[in-house]
What does this fold into?
Amino acid sequence: MSDTASSLERDLERLLDQERFPPPPEFVESAEVTELEQVDDHEAFWADKAGALDWAQPWEQVLDWSNPPFAKWFVGGKLNVAYNCVDRHVEAGLGDRVAFHWRGEEGEERDVTYADLHRDVQRFANVLKDHGIETGDIVGIFLPMIPEVVVAMLACARIGAPHNVVFGGFSPESVKERMEVSNAKALITVDGARRKGKTAAVKAAVDEVMEGMPSVKTVFVVRSTGAETPMTEGRDVWVDEAMEAAAADCPAEPFDAEHPLFILYSSGSTAAPKGILHTSGGYLTGVAYTHKLVFDLKPESDVYWCTADVGWITGHSYIVYGPLANGTTSVMYEGAPDYPDKNAWWDVGEKTGTTIFYTAPTAIRAAMKWGPEYAEKHDLSKLRLLGSVGEPINPKAWLWYHKVIGGERCPIVDTWWQTETGHIMISPLPGVTETKPGSATQPLPGIDARVLTDDGEDAGTAQGFLTLNRPWPGMLRTLFGDDERFVETYWKKYGKETYFVGDAARKDEDGYFWVIGRVDDVLNVSGHRMSTAEIESAIVSHEKVAEAAVIGQPDEDSGQSVTAFVTLGGSQADGDDDTVNEIREHVAKKIGKLARPKRIIWADDLPKTRSGKIMRRLLRDIAEGKELGDVTTLRDPDVMQQLETKVKERQSADEE
Ligand code: PRX
It folds into this structure.
């Protein structure tokens, strides 16, 4: 070990003993908020926060909770989300302010101002209208991290057409499924997308599944990389050409506060993804308020960078809607942290003078593995606040982040929330909260989080189920087209007034929340949410496979990784390496690369109850080498022994 490496190790050891980190005094001195706001009147509190937005018509009622769990916020109020994110800043004289310092993976630099957004969003909105898109029509978006994705989302918002964004890392088959189930009328995509020096021909790949998307009448194609792009006359439209031909002005018509803003599909415990529906007024209130509060935002001076992809909720809420509603200058980076080399992020951070940096634990662990020298070569002294999201952050990664990236002077906000909650729910306030590495600390003002036992009692300091006990403005309103599943998934366990999160958590003696992980069959791989059932169904659709069961295993890099127990069909013996690759590629095609199993274990049979239900708990126990509990409920208890042997064989092969 080099001298610097061992001195870093020593520093981290020292920090490990320090269990609590009060906000640094220099930070507190200029913090926007230094005292926790007391909430006496829940509705008055949120009405006050909604007042930060520009309403075309004021609301008559703050919250209608007369038919739980279906909430309505700011009833009777009208606003336009795009107007709030763009026009009002331009009208306030801030047109020249940069909204996004966009940085390309080959070092390209493009600064997009609020005036640029104002111009482009109107023209793009007119393009949508010119091609028959009306208020209420669903528009799919499948775009990489380029400024046009923001313009496309805001153009939809401007005309009240809910968008349905699909993460660029998903496969065209996933796009097809999501367009089909949401009955999308159009899809906005791109000629090609770059990733680590390679270009993927996105539109050409989407064309291959177009037949499965009968509802999609128009495909809008953004010109980005110049990749070869087949265009179908009468259906496909080049966005740049159409924008040139479109009118410049598109009035921002006010919509009802409860008008749907977007659907975002997320994984649940069955194979069918859930269409999480968010609406306008409450959602925008929640993301704008929390973005300002949690990140101590100073819009006139901060350069804020959230490294998420817009295709996830973090991108929707904290790249697009929250930051823009607050008039923020953000960094938007196209590429991966290690391309062209492992300096990539820190180069961008230094050159843009980033002051607030919001990323995921998995990225911090990767940077940690590469070593501190990449960050240390750069001047990151402008950084004043760090954030984390997506999964529990292990204390070692927290401390490394604090020391190497934050120079021990930046508070860390570990933000807990979900696609469903719309915005941050539990997080430190950087100028107020003493942090403890690994804990998201306490609920934000206006949020009532509790840890309950199975029977609904307060769990005290024992592990229990995390719940949210009062409606909040950014909450999902339902699952698109499936109110029943909405009620069943979130509001059945504890009744219609208590939202069941699906996470296990513990509250310590100081009232700090420690989120442990999912309690359902949802995996968290590199902060990306995936369902075991969805991956199983992709594996089983491979012609050689008879049956599959998927579990998540703890993984040093990605938090969790996918392990699949697979039974091949007919009288086939265990698969060979080629079969492993085939299955992995098949999953990539069906869902996306991120869902590929890291480990495949061949199984002659799977542990099932007499009624045929696969007992994943036993598979997890076997995979982790745990003592097996009661197996008498199994139809065939001998299966377990065979599997144990297989797992051991696999482990010794991995070790070699
Ligand atoms: O298990 C929790 C975990 O991520 C889940 C939500 O995933 P998704 O809807 O994809 O949204 C991710 C980005 C908000 C949660 O149920 N999770 C998220 N943030 C944290 C977390 N677990 C622990 N600590 C966090 N800060």
